[in-house]
Give the backbone structure.
Amino acid sequence: MPIYHAEVTAIIDTCFGINRMALLGSEVYAGNLTMIPRPEGSPDPVPERAKMLKGCDLYVNGASCPMCMSAIYWARINRVPLGTRLEDTIKQ
Ligand SMILES: [Zn+2]
């Protein structure tokens, strides 16, 4: 599958571990996902977003592609430490 990049599969696996029923489309909810207010001054027009992986870090080897960066944003991951310098990633 062309969308199964490491970052996306890590997010899917983690969300599935936190709330197994949500990914199956069930009405039953047994996880810890909650709605949280957006920070003051946030450009996001929606006043509340699901907590998702807020507070989590995602460690990556190099710079993520645009699809993965979007997935990281929508998963609400706090930090993405890079295993290499951005300049070294660009050289490849
Ligand atoms: Zn990617």
